[in-house]
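help with this record:
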Amino acid sequence: MSKAKQTEEIMSKKNLTMQGMTPLNALLLVLGMAAVGLSIYLTKHFFESHFPTGIQGSGFCSISAFWNCDVATFSTFSNIAGIPISFFGMLFGCFIIAGSIFPSEKMERTNGILAAINAAGCLVLFLYSLIALKGLCPFCAVYYIVSWAIFYLFLKFGDFSFQISPKIIAIYLVPTIVGGAIFHLHFNSETEKLVLMSDSILKEFKTLKNYGNPETDSKFRIHTSAEKFSDAPIQLTVFSDFQCPACLAFEETIAPLIKKFSDKINVQYFPYPLDDHCNPNMKRSLHPHACHAARVSMCAPERFETSHTELFKAQSDLSESWLNDYAKKLGVTECAKGEAVKKLILAGIELGEKYELSSTPTIIINGKKIEGSLPAPYFTAIFNSLLGK
């Protein structure tokens, strides 16, 4: 077949990439690059959140209780055997870019099927976030939109004939297997490194400013080893928010450590809802049910250890109706509406100003401030140091 006839046949077929760098192919290229860029950011955020290099931890891209990166970062499906889900998004974007720059019929058909699989996977993750996590990672959401746009281009304009090339798939498997193995090993290496970093973490902790403990002990404790708060060798004052995903991550980290150091540690709480319904320092409500949750929990200080655990476990279900039912269960419906508990919450918020509080959770360990949660080995090293070990 002559070159002219081959060109004519290509032009007559429905295809997306085989006619050169057309506007549609250029759009596909840009979308592929966007998928790679978003995936790189999400991968970076995953490792920074799980393996902070300093004692203050990594930042959290929290826009609101719903739009929150940590909803996904600390979820069950954030990784597979230590391989971030975003790695597969990065690969997908690279395959789309390769197919756009170096087109072939086999690659277009294969990429079209991959685009369909990727779009279906994004839909599953999107629904999981909405239904199970009750929140959505902003950058993940943008990636979902990019993925669905890529799938639409293949479906509408590409050679979408459900024909996968074994050769192309074999080529794609090489970076997938090699890259997956590298990320798996890196995850394990970073996990081991957490313990090895104890010395540098302790040096950093010792240089932190000592703000001192609150002048008044909180009535809200989740563990008591000594009646007077300052009599325990390890003293944790926690400023927290029941709708904060990072606060939930801290709860899950600190629970086994409290058991480990049970006869040496006091843990008290002060409310700091990121909710303008009760917090005058908030210009908008990041967590619209945080004030209500704080009121309910603080109306029964003798049961705070239990109620605080139950509220965090129900974080994704928190709503006005859920909290009203829970208040009724605790018998604190009227108290939760009263002025006394509102003043109690405001006192905790005002106390936060002493510690120059700007985010939750903020943990005061023997007078020294740590913003955000930390991996368990970091806390263990600090606690052992306070015990003279």
